[in-house]
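User: Run a structure prediction on this.
Assistant: Running it now.
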Amino acid sequence: MVMVGILPQYPLILAVFVAFCGVALIVYGIVWPSGYPGLEQRRLSHEGIRQTALTELWRSGVSGNISVVNFGDGLGLAVTSSVEKGSVLLTVPEELSLSVDRPRSCVRPEDMTSGMWSSGMWPGWAIGASLSCKVERMLVRAVARKEASRLTGLLSLLVMERRAAQEEGKATAAAQIVLEVLPGVGWQSENGLFAMDPEELRVLGAGTSLESWREIATNETTQAHAFMRQELEKLLGEEISLDEVQWAYMMLHSYGHWPEGGQALAAAAEGLELPGQVLFLWPLLLARPTPDANYAVIVRHDKAHQRYELLAPRNMAVGDEVLFSDPRLGDASALCFRGLWLTARHRARLRLNVLPADRRDPKSQPILAKYGCGTVPLSLFVKAERRVDPLFLSCMRMLALAGNATRLQLAEQRGWTEDWPETAPLDQRTEAAAAEMAVEALQQALERLSSSSAEARQRFGSDTLV
């Protein structure tokens, strides 16, 4: 408490800024800028493929006012007319989503709409639709009975979709063209998580978002591959390779759309878990992700009309980009699942040992969880910027109140969280307690990161790590 005593009246920002600088220097220091040879030429060829894919999506029942746009730093989707916040940007039939809640290829002829007949959009495989339906029914049943995880079911579906797209006439035109936007199977052997040297990853990932990712991904893809070999191969009569499963794994982690409240959901999710609320819609494979929920489309499921509606998150002008939500997007996920280095706007996930559960009032936990501050250890996504991350500051203040649920509830009722994650200091005592917790947690993180950084220098010296 000596340090806290010599700080100004509200010491949290000053104290945390000093500690945060040390953490940031190490966390973001492991990411090196990397050139991308032939990027512009590849982008031009992909623009034509994306335009064709969007045209096929229109024919398949998607509707809205969007177009493919080259933003200079990449390709994405943009609105073609001004819209107000909450307006529907895009409607997507349920059939154009990846889901294990029901077999969506099993549509009876009498249930086919006139639009589906005229567009030639047969659900599933146009030739051998019974096989597609049989596979989906098996997967839905296996997931419902907990014989397979939801992730295994989704990986199996994506592998099947990719295989169908490789054979003329066995996939919908929309799925076939959209899948061409994605890298091919085999790409993951030279890019991303499965291409990294396990020993380098162990050393460099200690104390960061990367820690344990390789082990988790290997276990999950191995389990899914074993399931597919046992259940799918006997239906297909063909072998399924581990490369296919690893490719599907990276695509799911790259293009999953998280719902409203995704920041708290992602912070609470263990490891690389993809919660059941994460959606996979074909049109969003043409869009780019954002970790900022204020700029990501809001997805609403219209069960009565069997479609998804994508809503504008704010008032949007012509040319504004349509983005999907990925609260995990940062240096680690970009490297692991997209094979890219971030050269700006660094973002990382920190796990901090702050206020153990036995020192919290149990009645405080629902409020902590509501604002993404309830996990033990505390899991937060922080950005590299000139000021201390506001979410981190606010969580420290909230945790300082967590020993007394009445005080925390009263603060919320009085509007203290209205501008979350921005909050104001409550009082000198709470601010001092928050500062002490923050500095202690960041000091532990700094010591752990410093240790791994020293080991990296000892092992690799001045070698270039790729």
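The chain is about 45% helix and 10% strand.
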